[in-house]
Amino acid sequence: MFTVGDGPMYDNDIDWRWRATRTSAGLPHVRLHDLRHFYGSGLIAASCDVVTVQQALGHSSATTTLNTYSHPWPTAEDRTRAAAAGLMVQALNATGRSDSNSTLS
């Protein structure tokens, strides 16, 4: 991912450059690895599938991705609750009983 000339940069050089960049920009202490997790979690929040996230992060298998990022993906129960809420909103709107104070959405 990071190169200098024709060869790769080593971890210590990458870390040093990141710390210098972060400090000069006045950013809080954030590791590059934290940004990687932020990116992966953002892809999941945007409803990307496991293979897309795996490829974006360069994981060798979808299993690696799932072992690391299983918690942000919505569960079957989460999807069922969202679907049921959506159905209720549609039903209320279809009968003209839409309530602007409704908490279903």
Features:
105 residues; elongated; two-stranded antiparallel ribbon; single chain; 60% helix; mainly alpha; 4% strand
Descriptive report:
With 105 residues, the chain is mostly helical. The protein has five helices and two strands, in the order ββααααα. It has helices at 11-24, 32-45, 50-57, 62-69, 76-94, and strands spanning 3-4, 7-8. It has a two-stranded antiparallel sheet. A hairpin with a 2-residue loop joins strand 1 (3-4) and strand 2. Helix 2 (32-45) packs antiparallel against helix 3 (50-57) and helix 3 packs across helix 4. The longest helix is centred in the last third of the chain and has 19 residues, at 76-94. The two termini are 41 Å apart.
Widest β-sheet, arrangement of strands: 1-2
Give the termini separation.
41 Å
Q: Helical stretch count?
A: 5
Beta percentage is under 5%
Oligomer: single chain
- What's the helix-strand series? EEHHHHH
In terms of per-residue confidence, which ranges show pLDDT below 50 for 5 or more consecutive residues?
none
Average pLDDT level: 85
Helix content: 55-70%
Structural class: mainly alpha
Biggest sheet statistics: 2 strands, antiparallel
Instruction: Give the strand tally.
Output: 2
Shape: elongated
Report the C-alpha radius of gyration, rounded.
Answer: 21 Å
